[in-house]
Amino acid sequence: MKRTVFRNRWLPYALVAPQIVITLVFFYWPALDSVRLSLYRASPFGDRLIFVGWGNFARLFADAAYLRSALTSVVFAFLVTLIGLVLALVLAALANARIRGLAVYRSLLLWPYGIAPAIAGILWLFIFHPSYGVLPYVLSFATTYQFNWFLKGWVAMTLLVVAAVWKQFGYNLAFYLAGLQAIEASVLEAASVDGAGPVRRFLAITFPLLSPVTFFLFTLNMTFAFFETFGLVHSVTQGGPGDATSLLVYKAWKDGFENLQLGVSAAQSVVLMAVVIGLTALQFRYAEKKVTY
Amino acid sequence: MARVLERAAGVTVARARGRRDRSGLVAHAILLGSVVVLAFPLYYALVISTQTVGEATSLPPRLLPSTAMLDNYVQAWQRAQMGRLLFNSAVVALAIAVGKIVISMLSAFAIVYFDFRGKQLVFWMIFVTLMLPVPVRIVSTFEVMTRLGWVNTYWALTVPLMASATGTFLFRQFYRTIPDSLAEAAQLDGAGPLRFLWSILLPLSTANIAALFVILFVYGWNEYLWPLMVTTTVEMRTAVVGVESLVPRGGSQLAEWNVIMAAAIMVLLPPVAVIVLMQRWFVKGLIESEK
User: Fold this and answer.
1) Which of these three, B70, B105, B126, is where a domain ends?
2) Of A255, A277, A280, A275, which is closest to residue A266 (Cα–Cα)?
3) At B248, which CATH number?
4) Which residue in B13, B96, B124, B132 has the most chain A C-beta atoms within 10 A of its own C-beta, making it the best mutation to test that interface?
């Protein structure tokens, strides 16, 4: 790689200084402190820290509430990702004709990306509202079952999943449409001439050719579902009813900020760190290999 | 024989065209349907925000606008201190967007155009921040803020969020596509590195800056956990966090959903407007920043 290099002894350091200072003070320091705190427990009077080694982690993994929260998070993340991707892919494939105004549609589908998860949650909260919402009202004609998310965990979970999928939908669709536009029409036409029907064409050609887009959207949606949905839980269900929607991020915050269990909360942060490292590694493996097809 | 083939080919083309028209119609129908379904929650919120409490909580639900709009927005504005909250959000979103862009342009410039000891280390340090999102720094963040005396300040709301691995990589990628001859020519003309950055790289980067700005403004405006952690007073909250305080918890509170929806509309409008108005840059930003 040839690159004209400016020579200066101190300037490059001055240029990276703001970035590095912020990184050290607000990323590395608190992160390392979380790791340190995860090995301690506050004394009964809260005046000093007692070293407990792996104690917090042992407690965490023996705690039924924490394991439930982990399971809830995994289920939530997979539901949001799978429903979101399947919907977007099917609609994109059906809509992928050479039509006018695709750009207009794209802008009409992209805007929910700008809505904060917390606000998206509040919009859907009212649609789901057991007394006034339009959805339970419509459903009441079909069944006597009470779709009350204040009382039923799975309805609350559905509410959060729907809000999250809604917020991400336009974004997923836009990437799939872009991916489909890149597939040569001649390939599909050739398959069509060879007698492949639309479903077979989709399964044998379109879907495999889109695998890089799918993989990219998968890691992105998983990261979103795990790490950017705190506001959604906090503003809508606050983890309830019971702890049916207490996602890991919400629980870590609640244990740290409201229950003031610093060591336990820190241990949860460390576990979350492992999750994000895994997702990032996955993303960069993809970036290197571009997922072969 | 040739003529038969030609005629057959003609028929096939005509048939293909007919199929294309039909699939075009199907595509329009599907896309229009998605647009409508996607827009419904926003429409519903808008409609509710124009109704009186009685109308908003009546059964069957009313799906048409009413006349209480002004009243509801004034109520939301006064009750939740929306003026103050929206001002805070604007300050935070703008400061984060501009700060991130400046800081990542500077570090990308250093990484691409200079050789210096520790460059690899700097690069990896920036990279690793991708693996340290806000949720993994929950407990210690507040203590760091307390030590700095930053709790309830704009510093706390903005500065810590200004580091940007994504931005740095985006500018690094872009600078690498700029021909070496430009920097050589600048050097021959006696321009120093900062002069080169200001007069040549900056004007060339405007499209990237605009793209990144949209993404970062939306990110800054919509951040939730961070402002919740580093502020304790209503005056320093951002708008996205503030709306939550209107949502009734428990049965005793009167649910004024018309006012809540008015507040929600006020909060979601600015970032959505930025996306719609800067559409072109937004799409570019989405695609570039995820490379």
Assistant:
1) B70
2) A255
3) 1.10.3720.10
4) B132
DSSP conformational letter for B137: G
Q: Is B178 exposed, middle or buried (0-12, 13-18, 19+ CB in 10 A)?
A: middle
- Supply angle C-alpha A137, A139, A144, rounded to 5: 100
The model's pLDDT over B5-52, given as tens digits with 9 standing for 90+, comes to: 444 444 444 455 555 566 678 888 888 888 999 999 999 999 999 998
In the block, tokens 């000093």 appear at: A48
Q: Which of B18, B36, B70 is the last residue of a domain?
A: B70
Same domain, B140 and B33: no
Beta carbons of A114 and B218 less than 8 Å apart: yes
Q: How many domains does chain B have?
A: 2
Instruction: Tell me the pTM.
Output: 0.89
Alpha carbon of A165: minimum distance to chain B alpha carbons (Å): 10
How far, in Å, CA of A128 to CA of A287, rounded?
40
Q: Which residue has the tokens 């709009």?
A: B69
Same domain for B50 and B183:
no
Choose, out of A39, A100, A109, A123, the residue to mutate when testing the contact with B (most B CBs < 10 Å): A123
Domain match, B254 and B118 both: yes
CA distance B272 to A183: 31
Answer yes or no: do B287 and A111 touch at CB < 8 A: no
Q: Are B17 and B134 within one domain?
A: no
Q: Which one-letter amino acid corresponds to residue A159?
A: L
Task: Tell me which residue range forms the domain holding B50.
Answer: 2-70
What are A189's two structure tokens? Answer: 């036409």
Q: Which residue has the tokens 């799918």?
A: A214
Q: What are the Cα distances from residue A160, in Å, to A49, A149, A156? A: 38, 10, 6
In this complex, do B136 and A269 lie within 8 Å of one another by their Cβ atoms? Answer: yes
CATH of the domain spanning A65-289:
1.10.3720.10
The reply to whether B172 and B249 lie within a common domain is yes
- Find chain B residues with C-beta within 8 A of A120's C-beta: 41
Model confidence pLDDT, tens digit, residues A151-194: 888 999 999 999 999 999 988 988 888 888 878 778 878 888 88
ipTM: 0.88
